[in-house]
Amino acid sequence: MSTSEGLRAWVEVRGGAIRRNLERIRQAAGTEVPVIPMVKADGYGLGMEDVVDCVDPLTPWAYGVATIAEGLRLRDHGVQRPVLVLTPAIPERYGDAVAAGLTLSLSDLEAVERLNRAAEAAERDVDFHVEIDTGMGRAGFAWQDASAWGEGVVARAGPRLNWQGCFTHFHSADSDDASTREQWERLAAALSKVSAIPTSCMVHVCNSGGALRGPEFAADAVRPGIFLYGGRAGAGLPDPEPVASVRARVTFVRDANPGTTVGYGTTYTAGREERWATLGMGYGDGLPRSLGNCGHALLGGVRVPIIGRISMDTTVVDITGIENVNVGDVATLIGRDGDATILLDEVAGQAGTIGYEILTGLTSRLPRIWIDDDGS
Ligand SMILES: *Cc1c(COP(=O)(O)O)cnc(C)c1O
Predict the structure, then answer these.
(1) Do 219 and 332 belong to one domain?
(2) Average of pLDDT values for 237-248?
């Protein structure tokens, strides 16, 4: 899909901005450090295959996904680079992962045995990465017990398995320097206790927030996600270039006399002679319902308030005093219109969530229209 003509609502994605954000991660973490762009959850909602096509010319070392199904999608798309599956995989699907040449992350000795069996059954050589838990708590071998599990991993990995990497995940790289450093030290302590670890083993730690903190934690590769897609990686860290714009057309315009109500529960009543515009977008498109009576849209470069509750398919804004708003005009819920801008993180803050949830919550009802601007 390349044009918004005839669309009621859509997401505009600026591919050049994704590439520039990736370059900024590289500049922060060290220009030589291999990058593993995280493209899980359909490329943070923007379209996994399109994201890959967009960043592939920058020669990332690998791609990061959360599930085997996502990894298979990348292989179907023709991706030849390594694909890291960074959450514990479902046991029944190890065979699929091996057949597709995906790189699983292993968090216990049973998983090592299981992968070993799958590799032998398929007669294929298989790379794997070991996750080390340094405080995130959702997966990984415990950092304190490294000498024990280190031996166990080596003992269970047969000749078909190659221990290619070790990683951990920061829980507070967006906000907290001290805990980030503490996790780094825990990882170092764990690695120093695993005498059996291959010297070629690559270590990777950083999400966007970690990578933007500089080369100190970059190790052998970085795994940026949100920053590539225009979401802030944390307070005090550089702002990304905006990537996604969320647009909806005006589908109806009306005058509202004082006393006129709008929306479920009639939470808004016109207090004067007002003019309202109905937009073709609601929570069924992923616009957070919590923006009712608190969020904004841009119309003709002017910021206008959302009034009443947001419905599944529509949202109403108060355009009183703004000339020349017509059916078919384009409203901006996230992004820029003229000199006015609504940032992804501003909307997330109003909705009481994070940019990640807003992006991944944009539903399939919104076509993603890619604009390949390479200017800056
Ligand atoms: C999602 C994820 C990332 C990327 O995190 P961002 O905060 O989006 O940069 C990195 N590593 C792992 C293991 C992840 O799950």
Answers:
(1) no
(2) 98
